[in-house]
Amino acid sequence: MSTVDLVVPVKQLNAAKSRLRGAADQGIGDAGAHARLALALAHDTVAAVRAATRVRHLLVISSDPVVAAELGAVGVEVVPDGPVPGLNMAYASGAALLRERDPAAAVGALQADLPALRPGELDDAVAAAAALFGSGRAGRAFCADADGTGTTFLLAAPAVALDPLFGVGSALRHRESGAHPLAGDWPGIRRDVDTADDLREAMDLGLGDHTRCVLAPTPRC
């Protein structure tokens, strides 16, 4: 395994990131400003994925027409959510679609709220998982979030089910299910953004262009 096919689900923008409402407009909480921030987080995540050399294909799962139009315009494949709602079902259905196309593919599940993600971090994490899989020590691997309790990235070796268990406390669930934690120093992978404090920490790491332009517009944005 040298590359991975990735699934990134993106919620309907009007329902995404409710704890960040007001972060884009000094606490006002305008729905349009909030949607722009949620979309920017996804845009920066996707941009980093597309620049990573170890990602062979990116599949975004979203039924939001703005997400589909915006990401489709930059060449990303976007398919709608399936009939069963939920993050883990989106990951599972996306992985199933990727495996239908190539049963020998390694597949991965990445969160869509990683605005400080760097392509090199993603490549290093995929390489670490590949080494782990090649050693036979595990068939699945994951990156815990900055708090150590959640999961931001899950990978499965070829012919191994992804078995996503995202949600509160998912790091422990993934570990208990047999996935191996990856220990690399990859702050951009680990800093998902759910709250204003998370966003400030991501700013300290360095935001991607889209999120930075929403939070601090300049003439170049």
Essential attributes:
seven-stranded mixed β-sheet, alpha/beta, Spore Coat Polysaccharide Biosynthesis Protein SpsA, Chain A, globular, 221 residues
Q: Please give the alpha-carbon distance between the first and last residues.
A: 38 Å
Describe the main β-sheet briefly.
7 strands, mixed
Count of extended strands:
7
Question: How do the SSEs run, as a string of H and E?
Answer: EHEHEHEHEEHEHHH
Shape: globular
Task: Specify the number of helices.
Answer: 8
Measured as a percent range, the helix fraction is 40-55%
Find the CATH topology: Spore Coat Polysaccharide Biosynthesis Protein SpsA, Chain A
Average pLDDT rating: 93
**Proportion of strand residues:** 5-15%
State the name of the first-level CATH class.
Answer: Alpha Beta
Query: In the CATH classification, which architecture applies?
Result: Alpha-Beta Complex
Low-confidence stretches: none
CATH superfamily: Spore Coat Polysaccharide Biosynthesis Protein SpsA, Chain A
* Structural class category: alpha/beta
User: Number of folding domains?
Assistant: 1
Strand order, largest beta sheet = 3-2-1-4-6-5-7
Rg, Cα atoms, Å: 16 Å
Structural commentary:
This protein has 8 helices and 7 strands. The chain is an alpha/beta fold and 221 residues long. It has a single domain (4-215), classed as Spore Coat Polysaccharide Biosynthesis Protein SpsA, Chain A, CATH 3.90.550. The longest helix is centred in the N-terminal third of the chain and has 21 residues, at 31-51. It is globular, with a radius of gyration of 16 Å. The protein starts with a strand and ends in a 6-residue tail after the last helix.
